[in-house]
Design a protein that fits this description.
Length: about 200
């Protein structure tokens, strides 16, 4: 699957991908608000990677646990795919960046072919008050608890890149792919939480 991309790269059959991430104006006549620091990853489009992401999205409504698990599953799937590309000798085909203050990102020298663009942005960090008691901490010393949560908005767009051409991408509120929750958990220090006189 990656051979055509590598061949196009060697032959100089490359194009450019230029994108912009922004929030659309809430009132007519107002300019859109750029999204800075949106992470963007461009990878060759493959049925396996795309199918795994689609399965995660489809299952997230099955239960509250599936909904919370969606973000770590997406990150794990992305990491595994990146590792597979590197092991296949195609690490140079991965292109990652983040948007600048104007919400702009740019990828040069992209081999022609079918690509997948994955973008994500975290927002709304919120600390969570601890609900556990000291007795719970002593009884379950290794159990973690949620200390903060974030909203993560994902974009997933297929792209067709042609040699010598510029492909433009827009990431905005109306073409988001999935909204997930990322939880930050903290493990307990069992020594500090052990009751006096207890081993």
């Amino acid at each position: 699957m990656i051979a055509p991309y590598l061949a196009a790269r060697e032959q100089g059959a490359v194009g450019t991908v230029v994108g912009r991430a922004y929030a659309e104006a809430s009132r007519s006549g107002d300019p859109p608000r750029p999204y800075a620091a949106v992470s963007v990853l461009l990878v060759p489009r493959t049925p396996g990677f795309e199918g795994e992401l689609a399965a995660i999205k489809a299952a997230r409504r099955d239960s509250p646990d599936r909904f919370v698990d969606a973000d770590p599953q997406i990150r794990a799937t992305r990491t595994a795919f990146e590792r597979a590309l590197i092991e296949a000798g195609a690490g140079a085909l991965m292109k990652g960046d983040s948007t600048d203050g104007a919400g702009i990102f740019r990828f040069a020298d992209v081999p022609e072919g079918a690509w997948m663009l994955l973008g994500w942005q975290e927002s709304g960090g919120k600390k969570t008050a601890s609900q556990s008691s000291r007795s719970d901490a002593v009884q379950f010393p290794t159990r973690s608890e949620v200390v903060a949560s974030f909203t993560v908005v994902y974009w997933l767009l297929p792209l067709d890149v042609r040699a010598g051409e510029e492909t433009q991408v827009r990431l905005h509120d109306r073409n988001t792919w999935l909204t997930a929750i990322r939880e930050v958990r903290s493990g307990r220090d069992s020594e500090k939480l052990t009751a006096p006189g207890r081993p």
